[in-house]
């Protein structure tokens, strides 16, 4: 389903009417960001507006939560954005690489310590189902662990690639000897994705 252009224009008119609040956008708990996300969800329930004030050029990101079907809607919203002083507006979170640490619900996750493997049987041609092995995996909070690994993948390879290239992922305890068990270091995932695309 396409997002009607007049609804997108209406969103940005609403946003511009709140210029006095734009200075709050760099705050993680910005009421304007929360209100903007609520408005975007009227266009598509998967859309959100996030701010990356730490980037070399601060960005407002129209994100889909890595939902492939909503990517055209995010792109349409970003493309229609007016000039917002101090910010660029982009669709989808860009790939950051693997040199970062994620803190999620009191646990640190380091992508450079993670490995992955691809089962022999892949359910969707051209896409990947993967198993991600992490050190010190605890099954007492599998929901939080899965959320964290999903956030790691989204930041490392980018939202578009997570949505379009990864059909599913499973989280497991990393074996003590991962390479003989068929695991590959996680930073090699973009190369494996590219090989899969080329078929």
Written account of the structure:
This protein has two domains: 5-91, no CATH class; 102-198, no CATH class. It is elongated and about 60 Å long. It is of the alpha/beta class and 199 residues long. Helices cover 34% and strands 20% of the residues. It contains six helices and nine strands. Strands 8-7-6-9 form a four-stranded mixed beta sheet.
Number of strands: 9
Low-confidence runs (pLDDT<50, min 5 residues)? none
Mean pLDDT across the residues is 93
Q: Helical content, roughly?
A: 25-40%
- Rounded to an integer in angstroms, the radius of gyration calculated over CA atoms is 19 Å
Largest sheet: 4 strands, mixed
Number of structurally distinct domains: 2
Distance between the termini: 30 Å
Instruction: Assign the structural class, choosing from mainly alpha, mainly beta, alpha/beta, alpha+beta, or little secondary structure.
Output: alpha/beta
Order of neighbouring strands in the sheet with most strands: 8-7-6-9
Beta-strand percentage range: 15-25%
Total helix count? 6
In short:
This protein is of the alpha/beta class.
Notable traits:
6 helices; 199 residues; alpha/beta; four-stranded mixed sheet; 2 domains
Please write out the topology:
Blueprint (H helix, E strand, L loop, with lengths): L4 H12 L14 H13 L4 E5 L6 E5 L7 H9 L8 E4 L10 E3 L2 E3 L5 E3 L10 E7 L7 H16 L1 H7 E8 L10 E2 L3 H10 L1
Parallel strand pairs: 2-3, 7-8
Antiparallel strand pairs: 1-2, 4-5, 6-7, 6-9
